[in-house]
Amino acid sequence: MLDDLVNVIETLQERIRTHGATLRANEIRTRTALIDPLLVTLGWDVADPALVTPEYAVGEGRADYALHGSESIPAAVIEAKRLGHALNDDERMQMLNYANARGVRYAAVTDGDVWELYEVFKQAPLEDRRILDLRIVNQPVHQLALRLLLLWKPNLASGQPVVAERPNIPNAVMQPASPEVVPARSSWVALSSFTAQRGMKHPTTIKFPDGTEYALESRRDLLLRTAEWLVSNGSLTSNSEPVLVRGGNGAKGYCIVNNRQVHPNGERFAAPRAINGTSLVVNVGSTSAVSKAKTLLEHCGVSPDTVQLQVGE
Prior knowledge:
- The chain folds into 2 domains: about 1-180, tt1808, chain A (Alpha-Beta Complex), CATH 3.90.1570.30; about 185-310, no CATH class.
- The chain is built from 8 helices and 14 strands.
- It has helices at about 1-25, 25-40, 90-100, 125-130, 140-150, 155, 220-230, 290-300; strands spanning about 50-60, 60-65, 75-80, 105-110, 115-120, 130-135, 185-190, 205, 215, 245, 255-260, 270-275, 280-285, 310.
- The strands form 3 sheets. A 6-stranded mixed β-sheet has the order 1-2-3-4-5-6, sandwiched between helices. A 4-stranded antiparallel β-sheet has the order 7-14-8-9.
- Strand 12 and strand 13 (about 280-285) form a beta hairpin.
């Protein structure tokens, strides 16, 4: 079962990276492509009315899913949003209130990428009632699989799901290995989802929509290789207008790419690198290299959702 869960997580990560723009447009697409496959793998067959009731009446509203165990009251209810929907506390509390009105112990909210699960009856602030909080697209697959076992049918339907990474469920059919024995892996994440943090290793590879891959020796390479790829497919040429970064720390009007090694205000580039075969110069300082790469792609009409980074786990 754990292998199946790992496989479906990898599939979901790829769908989010490849089809993110389409899935963000529609909740039904998100449910079909991202939420339903995960629930099925976790033992909740969405096509079986004995296990899952869609559009379940709760309080004054409806939950998108009710997950049924052996009791008459559902084990949990789930509110689904389209991919990329910014969850807010009002929506979270509304779902908890709906669940409370029907005596449901657990309530979840998800956009297919972010998954949150709450204890409905716990007397505590909202954040202390949250027992699961994860994002699928940019997390290590095996760690995700272990954490998602909190939603596994034998676990959740028990009424007292185990939060620990190694589940301790009576009569469980498997006991997964602890994270310490899971082999190190690398995973692909969408550039749009990647956030550089202090102390984090830089991505090792960048892959563009046409399959072109470049090895990355440093974070600043991410911006340089992005510019080189855009030149290679004709999106950037020697006649292109300067690509500017606007806003943030007084940097309005600063260039990412220009025909000269200067910004519009006359200040010279801090780290100029010429792009082979053109007169273009890219300013490849490591500061904000990730966000500048996203800006450069968007300027050229390429969604950062379609560009992937390989990140070591």
